[in-house]
Amino acid sequence: MPSAVASRRAVRRLALARLVSVAGTAAAEVALAAVLYQRTGSAAWVAAALFVAFATPALASPLAGHLADRFDRRRVLVASDVLGAACLAAMAFVRAPGGLVALAFGAAAAASPFLPASAAALPSLAPDGDLPWANARLAVARSAGFMGGPLLGGVLVATTGAGVAFGFDALTFLASAALIATLRADLRPAGGSPHGEGSGVWAGLRVLAGDPALRAMALGFVLVDMGNGLVMPAEVALAHVLGAGSAGYGAMVAVWAAGGLAGPMAAARLIAVHREAGVILGGAVALGGAFALAAVAPWLTVALAAFAAGGASMGLVGVGEDTLLQRRAPDAVRGRVYAARLAAVQLSIALPLLVSGFAVDALGPRAVYGIAAGLCAAGCAVLVRMRRVER
Prior knowledge:
This protein is mostly helical. The protein is built from 15 helices and no strands. The protein has 2 domains: 178 residues, Growth Hormone, Chain: A; 189 residues, Growth Hormone, Chain: A. The radius of gyration is 20 Å and the shape is globular.
């Protein structure tokens, strides 16, 4: 373990790498959607690209986690960024929609080991007492990347064209790889596989299912994240119901993102008082309350307050989840445990998207937010078990 000063410096460098990488990923997704629609005039191609962005990391998670636990995690992170950069650079020279989507699949597959490897490596950079602080820094960086990346991608496509946009996005991946390559720490996973978890790609799922606290966290957030997926198409409809139109929708997205920056900043202090399980449960309760408030909001200002609270709640939850997982999952399987949890999150969000648009059309956005609040309440009932186990 490096010294305290060196440790914090390494965490900040990893956070900067994540910011650059996430911003590049988000910019590339926006650029791809814009280019596909410009060239085809079909939303079906855009939907195909979105499906690839959501489904590929989930499907690749068993292998991604295995790579994070099998090889030096620094090399996994660098290789992930370099391969992603190669796919994005190739997209600058491809015009056929099918070719672009195929390369997007390759970029998403290449990026899939990044989050498991970086989350698994963090305890090698930060001492146990600094894990909440370190996870908060990474969460803020990720939120900032998601805020700036889409704007960057849209501006680049509009001002320079698709080729330059994809080329610039490739450079962000290379910059991330360069930052990670200079980390001064031993990021090799621990040898062996303690407690009989096994050595296969599914070992992380077995640990997640076998640990009572991690199991309660995963099952609870299957329900909570289903609510998240359900309300995604309802946001713009709610803005119109409130008479705010597209400008109101943009404001909702902006305040959610701002909350996503504020929540992690408070997480480290709250974890020191309430521990991880308390913060996770509290964040889930607050998210359900935010959905309920959005369901009955009479004015845009009330809805904006709900969205800010929702973004902050998710920021709190993310830091708590990562810290709990890092402290309870053995290093030898930590990448696979994180990958299993990430797959559960992505699938729990993606599957409701198959019906959420129809639900908004049939029931209206307020009813959909109410259903999401109910799903959060059901998830919290499961998460209480996690709190009891931690005590």
